[in-house]
Structures are given as C-alpha cells and as structure tokens.
Specification:
By secondary structure, this protein is mainly β. It contains 1 helix and 8 strands. The chain has one domain: Jelly Rolls. The strands form 2 sheets. A 4-stranded antiparallel sheet has the order 1-8-3-6, with no helix packed on it. It has a 4-stranded antiparallel sheet with strand order 2-7-4-5. The protein is globular and about 40 Å long.
C-alpha cells in the first residue's frame, strides 16, 4: 500500500501521481519567413494517459510571436492536418514568446499552473468525456494566433509516462 505520508490521516496516493518515468521531449521548430495567423506547429506526440508536468521555451526574439496557444490534437499523418481535441488553448492560452529566451523558460499557462490540476492525464485536459483506450496518442500543438516572422524556437516538454 502506498500512502501519502504527509497527510493526516494517511490516505492512499492517487494512481500515477507519485510514480512513472519522467521523460523530456525536445522539439525544435523554425518559423518560416512568411507564416500566417493560424499556423500549427506540431511539437510532439504523447499518449492520452501521459501526465504533462512542464513546458519550457528557448528561442529567438520575434516581436510578432506574442500570441500562441498550446493544445491537444489528434495525431496527423502525411495527408491530413491534426484535429483539435477540446480547445486549441486547453494547455496554454495567449503565451507571449516574443522576447528572447536564452535559457529554458517555463511557459505553462491556464490549467497546469493550478496545484489541483497537476498529475492529470492528457485526455482529462483535452476535455474528453470518456477515458480513451490504452495506447491512444495525442499531439501537443502550438497554434500561432498572430503573424510571426522567421525565427527558431525550442520547446522542452516534460511528462510522466507509465511505460
């Protein structure tokens, strides 16, 4: 039995909040010289039952890269674009990444910054009403809301995986 030792009285620990393998995906993207608003940057693919714990940004200064959403999408193939699950800003809303970040800077926004939300699975953040099958995959996608000019950006996405 695993218990939360600081709780009084002691209670069972919530499943997967205290165990799992911490992993980090490093995703480098280059914004083209003339992208339009609404461009989607596919950052990484995670399983629906993985637990997102951190999103950090390193990047060039880009004055117009000031309104970005981070959301959960269905995986895409070489033909179709990813389709949003829930909302395009289910993880982060209106992130301002216009200033230069020389060191990894945490950019977690709506939802994940609330202590009571840490440890939830991706499918919960996506607003899916019923738990998906084990092995279901989602993509973490950055949506550029405003126009952005050519620049390089790197995202470090930390998560707990159960494998």
């Amino acid at each position: 039995m695993i218990t939360d030792l600081i709780a009084s009285p002691r209670v069972l620990a919530t499943v997967r909040e205290k165990h799992g393998r911490k992993r980090v995906d490093v995703c480098r993207v280059t914004i083209p010289a003339t992208p339009g608003a609404g461009w989607l940057l596919r950052l990484t693919k995670l399983r629906a039952h993985d637990h997102l714990i951190s999103v950090k940004h390193i990047g060039d200064a880009d004055a117009q890269f000031d309104d970005c959403n981070l959301g959960i999408y269905t995986p895409s193939d070489s033909v179709t674009d990813p389709v949003v699950v829930g909302s395009a800003n289910s993880l982060i809303e209106a992130a301002n990444l216009s200033a230069i970040d020389e060191w990894p800077t945490e950019i977690l926004g709506d939802g994940l910054t609330q202590p009571e939300n840490f440890g939830k699975a991706l499918w919960v953040y996506a607003g899916v009403s019923t738990e998906p099958a084990i092995g279901t995959e989602y993509e973490i996608v950055m949506e550029i809301v405003s126009d952005a000019a050519g620049s390089d950006h790197c995202f470090m996405i930390g998560y707990l995986a159960g494998d």
